[in-house]
Structure formats: C-alpha cells, structure tokens
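Re: duplicated header lines in exported structure tokens

Our pipeline writes sequence and tokens for each protein into one text file. With two proteins the header for the second block appears twice in some exports. Here is an export where it did not happen, for reference. First protein block:
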Amino acid sequence: MKFREEEYREQIRKESSGTKVWSMGQSRRYKIVENWEEIKVDVMYEANKAKFSQNAKLKEVLLSTKGDIDARGFPFWAYWNGRILERIREELRAKEERDEKALKLLLDAFEDYRFSRKDPKGWAMKQKKTAEAKSKPEQEK
C-alpha cells in the first residue's frame, strides 16, 4: 500500500466516495512507502484484478472488449490503466481464448516499468543497447 500508517490506510479503505479516496491518496501529510514509485502499477493491477474477479457483471463487460483499451486520466495513469485492464482481460479469458502474445507483451511492459524505477541507470543502459541492436543492419547482427 501507498501509505505506511495502517490507520490512514484503513480510513481510505472505508471511504465510499471514489473522489474522496482519490483526494486522500494525494495527501502528503502521511509517509509514503519507500518503493511506491516501483510498486504503484502493481498495486493498481492487484486492486483491479480483485474487482473484476469478484464482480461477474464487470468481468463480462471487460471480457467482451477487444484490442487496446483507451483509459482516461492523467497521462501516466491513462496509459497504465489501459494496460492494466488489457492484462486482466487476457488473464481472465479461458486459456483457449487468451492472446498469449499480447499477454507476454503486457507482462514485459510491467516488468520493464518496475526495472526502470528500481534501477534507472541500468534501465537506461538496457534501453540504449536495445536501440543500438535494432539499428544495426541485419548482416551485422
């Protein structure tokens, strides 16, 4: 969770207004866990996975979608909320209906995000090497 203080986390959990929850989550009066930037996408994924796993109607709606999901919000979360929903959709599909290639790309994106936050210099080096490898002519590879 984002905040260290259990009491504050419980206040957020009990709040029924989504707007109020969002506002409480923006507070800087309470200490945030040290690795929040690294784990925040995974925390959002886990919360949404629980929501769609427990609500048959929402699950049905999500499974009826195809392709990229266009989510709303600030740029960071608009991007990640879409990827989170796409990942959950593929994971909830029956194995024979699952797009394994799309799921692998999504899992790689989540891993890449975690790595970029945990080791920014290492991630930048990896990105540079990948770009260099892609730019080499075929015979040099």
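Second protein block, exported in the same file:
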Amino acid sequence: MAAGGSVVHPAVPSILVTPICPHVLSFRSMVFPDHVVLRCYVPDDARAPASVAFDGKHHRELQRGDSLQIQMSNYPVPTLNRGDHSSDWLESLKRSFNFNTRPRQRPL
C-alpha cells in the first residue's frame, strides 16, 4: 500500500506488479492474470548491473544479459476468515485504512 499499489480482492487470481522508485513517470502498478509469465531482462549493452529486491528483504544483483521470471506460485498462501471471504477483507480495509468511512465532525 505504501508504494501506491492496487487493492485487489484475495479471491482474484492475479499477479500484482508495483514499481518502487521508477525511473520514468509513466510506469504504474499493473495487475496481470494468474496465467501470465513475466520476464524482465537486463540488456547486454546496459551501462551497469541492475538490482532487484523481493519484499524489500532479499536483494540480488543482475548482470548484463541476466533475466528474471515472475509467475504465479503453485502454492497460494492460505487465509483464515472469521466469516465469509469478502466480508472479512472489506472489514479489514475499512478498519485499517478507513475505506468508505467518514469521521463524524464536531459541531461548530
């Protein structure tokens, strides 16, 4: 959320790509169907190596000619729900981010 990524219901099988500090202003978050395989290449004539981070923890350097493949996992993360899937998710958004709520104003 801090990077401005999309909010997607957990029942929607998708891959979310959100750039962190992109070098061009036209790059935006993207949502892909779960069957898509994305490949990012470092050009052979790149001026310098590239770096990639996974969830901000695991940093790797990519050399010229290296590539990275992104695809949906065969093992999705299980979730626990108090009620039904959608109600829990919507309540969590409302509670955490004040989605669709308006604070009561004090009288003048």
